[in-house]
Each structure stands twice: as structure tokens, then as C-alpha cells.
Amino acid sequence: MGNLHAGILGTGHAYPAGILTNAELEKTVETSDEWITTRTGIKQRRKAAPGEYTSMFAVRAARQAIERAKLDPLEIDLLLCATVTPDQILPSTGCIIQAELGANKAAAMDIVAACSGFLYGLTLADSMIRTGQSRYVLVIGAEILTQYVDYTDRGTCILFGDGAGAAVLGPVEADKGILAARIRSDGRYLEQLFSPGGGTRRPASAATLAAGDHYFKMRGNELFKVAVRSMSEISNEVLEEAGQKAEDISLFIPHQANQRITDAVASKLKVEEARVYSNIAMHGNTSSASIPIALDECVEAGRVKEGDLVLMASFGGGVTWGGVLVRW
Ligand code: COA
Q: Where are the domains of the chain?
């Protein structure tokens, strides 16, 4: 493995044009803009229109990332699409994206790790590049969550939005790129966020549809605590592994789930607001797409410069969590 590192060579993001505001939700479910804003920080989220599907946005984000990495799609040798809302059961959304991009020399597959999917992808890409198994890896996080949201359940329908983000990774000089990456899960907490219907355990039927078994079910309160604990712990672990301190972080990009979760994690890590990125007000929670969308927004806004230390941390259904530390 030597000192070879995997660096982020290009990023991109895309989302549907449709916007669902708190004011619109007020009309359909018993909630208020004031409640949503103070409890979550969310003001609006993107919502796909009928006929729009996950890979559409994934392909747009991926094309941008490949272009900015100055690569040809044929140079990508591994394509990882993190999603819990695939286009269809078979084939993988990764293979669908591969065909659209013309990335015909890649091995393509999906990663199912909910909101941690993108960091799972970065971690796998890092290993594959450092071992020489792959040279250029495309990691995508893409979701149309609004199709799995029960718009009569005010506990979940206010949170989720749609979109996609992507990053191309490749070998870089040894003092740059991913310095430490860790992923974890604990399936004992699977009922904190899950969708029970539509698989082999409860195959889709008129009865499962009527019962709303295909919708996301969530224990928000419990998940909140797990989120704060797991993201803080794994952030400290990757910092320690790389021999870095929280005060060295230029930018902290947490999974965008709830502004109060972000604030609690940042406060535990002692990273003040100016070094924390938040776009929750505009996008809500886009699961695996949240970190790559945020990362690309930071790149576009010039908030990440060469030499910067960028920390990313996530948690999600499974439960899963992860932390990745990058020297830009
Ligand atoms: N509008 C108005 N009231 C609402 C509401 C809404 N949209 N959703 C819930 N409430 C009510 C509840 O019914 C409850 O009423 P009660 O006290 O009469 O029983 C009250 O508000 C408090 O509910 P609670 O669930 O304790 O609120 P909370 O402060 O924990 O906020 C979440 C709820 C979902 C916003 C919060 O728990 C959260 O963000 N959890 C993490 C979820 C998450 O990130 N999931 C994705 C994982 S990647």
C-alpha cells in the first residue's frame, strides 16, 4: 500500500426543480413552519416530479464530477452508487448510471447504507485505490426519498428531500487525500428507521400498499441521540487516527439531518459555527446525497482550498455511521 493516498479529484451535484416548502406542508399535515424551523432548521426540500427517478440526478451529478476531474468516463474502473431508493430492484442503479455515462470499463454496484452510504463509498474507494485494485473510482449518493415518505405522518414527512451528489477519486500525493476513513453499523437498532414492505419478507401486495408498509417508519427521538453520539465518536476516531485535532479542521461537513443534531455534534467536537457547513434549510435530509451535495456546494463556493482539512461524518438507518478526514 505504501504511502499512496486516494484524493477527491472532482465533485458534482444535481436535484429536481420542484420545491416543497414548509408553508405547503402546513396545508396537508398538522404542522407549522415555526415548529419545523425550530425543531429541524428545514425551510424547504427538493421534490421530484412524477416521471423523475433516482439515476436521472445521479447521472447529472456524476457527469459534472467526471468533467471536473478532467477524466473520460472510460477511465472510471469502479462505480459505487449509494442509495436506498434505487430506480428498480434489478439491475443496480449503479449499472443503470454506468450505461448512461458510457463508463463501460467500470465495475458498478450499489451500496445500501442509508445516510452513511456516501462515506461507505469513499471508504471503499480509498481502500481500492490504495491497494491498486482501482485507479479512478466514481462515488455517488442519490435519492428520491419523497416517494417513500408518508405525507400523513408529520414525524417524517417534514424531513426528507431529493437529490444527488458525486465525487471522483484517484491517486494523489501522499500528504493529500483521505487521511483516515471509518465506517460502522449496528443492526440491533434497525427499527429506528426502516421500510418494512416490498421485499421478500413482506412482498408488495395490495395489503402492504394499503397498510403503507413501503413508507419509512422512524423513531426520531431515539435516532437523534444515536446520531449525536455516533457522529461525535467516529469524528474523534478519524482525527486521532490521522494525528489531527478538531482545532485543525478547516471545514466540518456533517450529514444534514437536523440542524440541532449538527449543532450538538459540532459543540461536542468544539468546532464553532463558522467552520461547520449547513444547507439543511434548503435541502432537508437527502440521505446518501446529503454529504456529496454539501461538499460540492462548498467546492463551488470556494470554501475548500488546497491544504484544507475537511471532516465529514454521517449516521443513518441500519443504523450506520461513518467518518472521513480529507486533506484537500
Ligand atoms: N409538527 C408539529 N408537531 C410535531 C411534528 C410536526 N411536524 N412532528 C412531531 N410533532 C409533535 C409530536 O407529536 C410531539 O407531540 P407530543 O409532545 O404531544 O407527543 C412533539 O411534537 C415532540 O415530538 P418529538 O418527536 O419529541 O420531537 P423532537 O424534538 O424529537 O423532533 C424530530 C422530532 C423527528 C425532528 C427529531 O427527533 C429528529 O430530527 N430526529 C432525528 C431524525 C433523523 O435525523 N432521521 C433521519 C436519520 S438519517
A: 5-174, 179-327
Q: What is the dihedral of CA 211, 217, 222, 228, to 10 degrees?
A: 180
pLDDT in tens, 261-314: 999 999 999 999 999 999 999 999 999 999 999 999 999 999 999 999 999 999
Residue nearest to atom 46 of ligand 1 (CA): 257
Single-letter residue type at 143: E
Identical topology for domains 5-174 and 179-327: yes
Mean pLDDT of the 209-226 span: 95
Q: Is the peptide bond before 292 cis (omega within 30 degrees of 0)?
A: no
CA 31 to centroid of ligand 1, rounded, Å: 11
The pLDDT tens digits of the residues spanning 244-259 come to 999 999 999 999 999 9
Q: What is the pTM of this model?
A: 0.97
Kindly state if the Cβ of 158 falls inside 6 Å of ligand 1.
yes
Contact 199, 39 (CB under 8 A): no
Residue of minimum CA distance from atom 39 in ligand 1: 258
Which amino acid, 270? K
CATH number listed for the domain at residues 5-174: 3.40.47.10
Percent of the chain at pLDDT exceeding 70? 99
Torsion, CA 287, CA 254, CA 57, CA 281, rounded to 10:
90
CA-CA distance, 322 to 49, in Å (whole number)?
A: 31
Q: Under CATH, what is the fold of the domain 179-327?
A: Peroxisomal Thiolase; Chain A, domain 1 (3.40.47)
Check whether 64 has a pLDDT greater than 60.
yes
**Annotated catalytic residue 283:** no
